[in-house]
Amino acid sequence: MFQFTYKLRVAERVKAKCERHPRYNPERDGRGGIKGGCSTCFSLYDLHHVRLMLDSAHRDF
Ligand SMILES: [Zn+2]
What domain count does the chain have? Predict the structure, then answer.
């Protein structure tokens, strides 16, 4: 339980940006907004996606 809370807090603090695409916003642009299969943007998207899943899991719980 402690570990779960810890992970949530870490995700809370992450404000990552892609150096090549500073305007990319996974929340707004989604997966289709990733330019040229940029791996950093994919990571940002994954992070956002995991964050949403954690949030909904937390709500369901
Ligand atoms: Zn990028």
Answer: 1
